[in-house]
Design brief:
38% helix; 526 residues
Length: 526
């Protein structure tokens, strides 16, 4: 009772002696009747209206009326909200001369057990105490934006003050995003009904420009689309270590498909599956300001540095794979339709003009997917050399090694009749090489081997696994600087007469010059 009526002890205080004086206009009986009226467990939500009427006829003084109205307003505001208190005060203020009589008359008029509307003495229509009022506004239209596990949820709609989200406690079987109509009552949504969706409002397939058709337009596209969405969720829910492990496996698989097998039949299907899987790992570049993390430096070093080159490697795998796939073939295009549509959607959000390494990779993807060449202003690079065509690169085809076009152009490099078997130093894998190098000074012949070694073992072990000739023939790496000899029969980078780039101003090899090392230490100390 103390929480409902803070003046309750004052009304219940009895007379303690002959010298004590009661407050004018109040009596113990008034306090008892008022307590009976305000008690939350007495009567129904009408708060024992007959007791209040009996109180109103016991003492009709201004002090008792003011006290009764004040206590009544406070009690009802705590129990039934402020809307009902406003009606009580409006009814009381209708007749200033006899406030309790006006209140009694109003409560008698509104004593409707069915909660129907009554008419007050002032001619205005009022509602019974036990009733609840509906919002004066019409039904609102919005959509379900959140559902709670225990029932109810949130609906969002557009009001005069902007977008508003309110809560609802009960409703029909709903789904997130479903259009509904409802009324707003006491700050909550009630009487929720589901709006029928017209057939014309159903989302239609998105039309794409270029060589990629709309997703889901051909049989089997829905199955590939579901796999793509499942792979997107799997990759984004994985840790950085798991993501790095998956991209390592994808690079090894791509290199094995391009090195060992042709791109026909089973190998072509495996390459298409690889493109669909890796495309789900791709996302558009994030702005530098948004990518900055406000966490501790240790957290950045652990995760950020490991995954900094992850997207670059993913784009590289996609570019290499798409360069070896014929997208003009109808069956291949149907197989890659969902993945290509996803990549094309990301390309629409990328700025292809900025001269960055990531932008160059995005331009290559755009050129491969959309077909044809990009605009001339989009293909400009920042003064760097253009990428060498794949036909002019070194590699292994059908188990036979061949160097790149620049190495083949040296007069000291030639192709022999006999092929030398090369074996990996870390695994039983073997390839053959029929290309040789003859030293211009000594005339000694060396067999050319790939500089990067066995790619699969390098990814698995983390270090280079060189190729070793099986017959004991001396080998020579196919690096350009190692094979570039000047007319003085020396490597051009170490020739003092030609001014090689590794010769310092003291006419010594740069890494073995003591004066240059001393100057470098002094600059580092400063």
């Amino acid at each position: 009772m103390a929480t409902c009526c803070p003046w309750w002890p004052w009304y219940r205080r009895p007379s303690t002696g002959a010298g004590s004086r009661r407050s004018s206009g109040s009596s113990p009986r008034d306090g008892q009747m008022l307590a009976l009226f305000c008690h939350p467990r007495k009567g129904s939500r009408r708060f024992n209206r007959q007791s209040f009427l009996q109180l109103g006829h016991t003492k009709k003084t201004e002090a008792a009326a003011a006290t009764a109205v004040m206590v009544l307003s406070l009690s009802l505001s705590l129990l039934n909200g402020t809307s009902f208190v406003g009606k009580v005060l409006r009814a009381v203020s209708a007749t200033k001369e006899e406030p309790l009589a006006a209140m009694s008359e109003w409560m008698e008029k509104t004593a409707d057990p069915q909660g129907q509307w009554g008419t007050s003495s002032t001619g205005t229509r009022e509602m019974a105490v036990s009733g609840s009022s509906r919002s004066n506004h019409g039904p609102c239209h919005g959509h379900v934006c959140q559902l709670h596990y225990h029932g109810g949820g949130l609906v969002a709609y557009q009001s005069e003050n902007g977008r508003v989200t309110i809560q609802f406690r009960t409703g029909p079987c709903l789904r997130i995003g479903q259009a509904v109509a409802f009324f707003v009552r006491d700050g909550a949504a009630v009487e929720i009904t589901i709006l029928a969706v017209k057939k014309e409002a159903v989302m239609e397939p998105i039309s794409r420009t270029g060589s990629v058709a709309a997703m889901g337009s051909k049989p089997g596209a829905l199955r590939h689309s579901k796999r793509l969405q499942r792979e997107i969720g799997r990759f984004h829910n994985a840790t950085v270590e798991e993501q790095l492990k998956w991209i390592d496996q994808a690079e090894v698989e791509l290199h094995r498909l391009l090195e060992d097998d042709g791109l026909e039949g089973v190998a072509g299907d495996r390459l298409c599956r690889l493109v669909r899987r890796v495309a789900a790992w791709l996302h558009r570049p994030v702005a530098h300001a948004a990518a900055q993390d406000s966490g501790p430096v240790e957290a950045k070093d652990d995760s950020g540095q490991k995954g900094s080159q992850l997207q670059k490697r993913i784009r590289g795998v996609l570019i290499t794979a798409l360069q070896n796939i014929d997208l003009q073939d109808e069956n291949t295009l149907n197989c890659l339709e969902s993945a290509l549509s996803f990549i094309q959607g990301l390309l629409d959000q990328v700025d292809l003009v900025s001269p960055t390494a990531a932008t160059r990779q995005w331009r290559q993807l755009a050129s491969l997917i959309r077909g044809g060449n990009l605009r001339e202003d989009d293909t400009k690079t920042s003064g760097r050399q253009k990428r060498v065509p794949r036909a002019d690169c070194s590699g292994v085809l059908d188990g036979a090694y061949h160097p790149n076009k620049r190495v083949k152009g040296f007069p000291t490099v030639f192709q022999g009749d006999n092929a030398i078997q090369l074996q990996c130093s870390s695994c039983p894998a073997t390839i053959s090489s029929s290309w040789f190098f003859r030293h211009p000074g000594t005339g000694q012949v060396h067999v050319l081997v790939p500089e990067k070694g066995h790619y699969a073992c390098k990814k698995r072990l983390g270090n280079t696994s060189p190729w070793i000739p099986a017959s004991g023939v001396p080998s020579k790496l196919d690096r350009y600087d190692f094979l570039n000899f000047c007319h003085h029969m020396r490597e051009s980078r170490y020739c003092k007469l030609c001014g090689g780039r590794n010769i310092c101003e003291h006419q010594k090899i740069r890494h073995s010059c003591g004066t240059c090392r001393k100057l470098a230490r002094q600059r580092a100390e400063e």
